[in-house]
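Workshop exercise sheet. Pairs work together: one partner reads the sequence aloud, the other fills in the structure field after running the prediction. Swap roles for the next sheet.
Pair: D.N. / O.F.
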Amino acid sequence: MAGHWEQRNTDWWDTTVLNCSLCGQMIPRDIWVVEAASETRLFCGPDCERLYLEYWLPKYGASQRDASP
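Structure field:
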């Protein structure tokens, strides 16, 4: 895993919502950030990153889109 924790520094009135790239859970403060290639993904923790890399990406990732007619 290549991610790292970052803390959101927002004002108390800011209503911007960030969601986990895998499970969709709202992320209020601590974000697990993964920067790969030219893409940045935000996760709620390292477990979602691992599940994304080991399950979602091999099953639904780029290779599946390339195989479609």
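Discussion prompt: Residues 22 and 52 are 6 Å apart (CA to CA). What would you look at next?
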